[in-house]
Amino acid sequence: MESAVMAPGSTRLKVRGKSNVGRNSITRLLTRNHNINNKNNRNGAARPNSLRNNSNQRHLNFNKGSRCSNQGVDNAAYAINININNGNDTSDSKIIFSGNFTREVYNAICPRLGHTLHIPEDSVQALFNDMKLYPSKDQVSEMLKCARQCGRRNGSSKYITFGEFCVFVKEMKNQNSKQHRKIQATKTNNKCVNNCEVFLGGSCNPTTWRADTAIPELQKYGITFYNPQVSMWVPELVAQEHDAKQAASVLLYVVDSQTRSTVGMIEVAYLVASGRCVIVVAHSYRPGQSIMGETITAREYRDLVEGQTTLLTLVRSKGIEVHKNLPSALQCTAKILRNVSNDMTPEEQLTSKLRKLREVFDSYGGQNGEIEKFGFLKAFHQLTQRELTTNEMYEYLNFSNNQSITFERFCMLMAEITSDNCDMSTTNGWVSQPFQRQCSTNNNTCNIDNSLINGTMEEPVNITSFKKNSYDVFLGGTQSSQWRENIAIPILNQQNLSYPNSTNGYEILDNKIVTDYDVLQWKQMMDNSKVILFVITNDSRSLTTMILAAHYIAIGKNMVLCVQQLPEENCHVGNETLSEQAIKDYNRGRVYVVDMAKRKQIPVFEDIREAVQCVVK
Asked: How far apart are CA 588 and CA 541, in angstroms?
């Protein structure tokens, strides 16, 4: 442990302790700023500066009128304690820098105002200009009004806080970035992983709907996109596609009957259950049709129809419309993205984010001025539709103490995190109120051209009231093998655990096509079970099981997965031999389901007995 002490008016700096780490940079920082008095301090007395090094955070006391010089401070997180004198009210405030963005904003403030967390209203316009940002007078006026309302300050407080200013700076930069993206959108932008507005998911080769229709239409509106279609797919692309989906504001999926669409259906089930804004186009399969030059069997046709029906029932149960054609889906996509901006004035665009932050902050206990750190994690997830990783938690939040988070720091953290990694959130940094209204899972509809009114499928499914029996375990998965009777049920009976009989689980006979009612009945039983076990064996296509598994992975259901890959040669499902392409399609679906489960830390096994043992534990 080391410390540095400077007496008032002294030019000498004493550093105590054995460690020399950072001593030179600290000396340069303090000796350049120690003797500048606080111009706004009414008693005119200079306060002492002090510093102590605790782990990798530096705590500094500065006078408000001093000028900053952070060149000597490295990129580690550090904190500044600032003494602020407002009339007769003297208070200490702390600002903690955890990344480059807040540090950049603070460095822009210091040359003009010195070390302060309170920015006078009459300095806001000039500070924006210093940062090469040029809001109009009306926009600045609306920012000041919004800051007073969100900060719960009365009219006599003629300042905005540093955190509020960070939010406005980020939004100004974001608007400039969007204008730049519109200019660049006419160029090919298939791989804009971190800044795409639309993810073009669903059926890939041999379909050409992206290049022929979707991409030209999106470019016409200046909408950026990510195109995952490649000539040769490899498992390593899963992570890149995940980042693009996280960054996208709208996820447009085409479930085309020209392909098996295994991955597309699995992803839609997951994303819809996650509350993302998903636009779905679905084309029905036909008996005896060809896929990739191969005539599908009657059994595979039923499996594909069962999977697609399961997916669309889950989608419509959320109130999301399913489009029959791509033009209506593209028009809906463009309308949603345009309405994010065009339904608001330029002034409202800049302030909507701060109002949304205040709303979410209050919803997690912030009415009293602070929220707990775990409340912040929940708020962050609500705003960005993602969770902080363990490394990010330690980088941005100090869990070694129980210090709560003020609205000031909440704003700083949201601005910092969504600036450091644009792939961790939606394109706009966090979901604004107007965007949520357009893309909520219960209202993912839009008014489209009357000429396309027949382009959407039937009305949303109403969930019927089924008999509500509760179970300990739901045994979901392959029906053809005997894993339930030979492995799972004996173990569950030994532990006195309840489960639905296999005849009441999802099981489609060769002469029966699945209906919405069947799917909702399965869903009711799974919802009423404490744990779900999904078993995907190496002798079944298991498309429906993978779709249901993805749905329950997304909503956080307590579950265990057993996933077996189909053999690459001599693969048989029943009395049918699968083609090489079919094996690749269904195995690719397994790869995506396993990836989803691992991201949510759900146990995944290859051995059925091990999976069942995990359930009973």
From this structure: 11
Give 187-214 pLDDT, tens digit per residue: 444 555 566 899 999 888 888 899 999 9
- DSSP character for 512? -
- In which band, very low, low, confident or very high, does the pLDDT at 27 lie, cut at 50, 70 and 90? very low
Q: Is residue 24 part of a domain?
A: yes
**Cα 592 from chain centre:** 18
Three-class DSSP labels, 266-289: HHHHHHHHCCCCEEEEECCCCCCC
- Look at the chain and report how many structural domains it folds into: 2
Average pLDDT over residues 161-188: 70
- Do 303 and 224 contact (CB within 8 A), yes or no? no
DSSP tag of 504: G
The domain in which residue 79 lies consists of 1-97
Say what the pLDDT of residue 281 is. 95
Q: Are 384 and 139 in contact (CB under 8 A)?
A: no
C-alpha 308/C-alpha 435 separation (Å) is 28
Q: How many CB atoms lie within 10 A of CB 294?
A: 14
pLDDT of amino acid 434? 37
Residue 270 lies in a domain: no
Residue pair 184/225 in contact by the 8 Å Cβ criterion:
no
CATH classification of the domain holding 571:
3.40.50.450
Quote the pLDDT of residue 343.
54
pLDDT band at 177 (very low <50, low <70, confident <90, very high): low
Q: What is the pLDDT of residues 113-147, one digit of tens each?
A: 998 889 999 999 999 999 999 888 889 999 999 99
At residue 607, what is the residue type? Answer: D
Higher-scoring residue by pLDDT: 426, 120: 120
Strands 225-226 vs 159-161: parallel, antiparallel or unpaired: unpaired
- Pair 34, 49: CB distance under 8 Å: yes
From 66, 97, 128, the end of a domain falls on: 97
Burial (CB count <10 Å: 0-12, 13-18, 19+), residue 485? exposed
Closest CA to 444 of 576, 249, 227: 249
* 537 SS3 class: coil
* Omega cis (within 30) before 460: no
CB 593 within 8 A of CB 563: yes
How deeply is 43 buried, as exposed, middle or buried, from its count of CB atoms within 10 A (0-12, 13-18, 19+)? exposed
Rg, C-alpha atoms of the chain: 29
Segment 561-578 mean pLDDT: 93
Residue 587 lies in a domain: yes
Tell me the sheet residues that pair with 250.
Answer: 198
**Pair of tokens at residue 585:** 């399609």
* Mean pLDDT to the nearest integer, 264-274: 94
* pLDDT for the residue numbered 357: 93
pLDDT in tens, 527-545: 999 999 999 999 999 999 9
63: in domain: yes
For 561, list phi and psi in degrees, rounded to 5.
Answer: -115, 140
352: helix, coil or strand? helix
Q: Which residues have CB under 8 Å from 172's CB, separation 6+?
A: 128, 133, 135, 350
Half-sphere exposure of 251 (CA within 13 A, CB side): 28
Strands (E), 173-320: 198-202, 225-226, 250-255, 278-282, 290-291, 294-295
User: Domain ends where: 97, 118, 150?
Assistant: 97
